[in-house]
User: Fold this.
Amino acid sequence: MDGILLLNKPQNMTSHDCVNKVRKIFKTKKVGHLGTLDPDVTGVLPIAINRATKIIQFLDQANKEYLAEVKIGFSTATEDASGEVLEYDNSIKSISNQQLNVVLQSFIGKQKQTPPLISAVKVQGKRLYEYARENKIVERLPRDIEIFDIELLSEAGDFVGQEITFIITVKCSKGTYIRTLATDIGKSLGYPAHLNKLIRLKSGKFPLNQSYTFTDIEKGNFELISLYDALESYHRVLASDQMKADIKHGKKISYQLNKFTLIVFYDIFKQVLAVYEPDKNNQGLIKPVRVLFSE
Assistant:
């Protein structure tokens, strides 16, 4: 059984916990996931099973879409609702819908973002949360991200109170921390803030409304997305017999492309055989990036 399983990740489970549970259900060790979700976060978590683990690298760079609830009034050590409160502002706040929209729109575009202290980003071979557990402070370098769109769903004319909560949708690049975005929105408004709740609506081409709960999966009520369908955004080519022979032995292939892109070769049964890329040193030739050939 090979393919991508779209899991509707439950709360209070790490992405690694989800992978381990899928391993037990499918009785296989070859399981991986695309795009880590924090334990408190729910939503679509694509899980690659068996041969599909070999194409994770071609799917994991995709853009994401989230539904986020931001709370203005206090900040936390983890930048989400589970963290220790760092700063509290008990003043009565009044933020107009227009003011909030102006601030939200200011975050659209390419920018630098510093990852949270407690995150899976690696620094010198260790993840930031591992340093945090050891009470060690390390330098966190800003990373390039892009926010494509932010939409305010809350329709109040004015947001008033000691604590203000509003809901937004965010379309962004891989590696964007919505926790950090929430705190930065608060800073732009002049108040401490944190991410109160987060749901991932889409990971690349994979939407939440096509995902399955663990209950569905355990009952057998699910379908896997084939490797062929998962890679549909790439240039796909039906391999000839000669191409298949070359692919099997990892050889370069003569193939003309108008632009630099990945090429997915498949057979008449729509089984993915390999992923190739242009050879920068030999125009007109493509070379293997990943061979999945099986008889």
Observations:
- The chain is about 20% helix and 35% strand.
- The chain has a mean pLDDT of 91.
- Residues 100 and 295 are 58 Å apart (CA to CA).
- Residues 15-26 form the longest helix (12 residues).
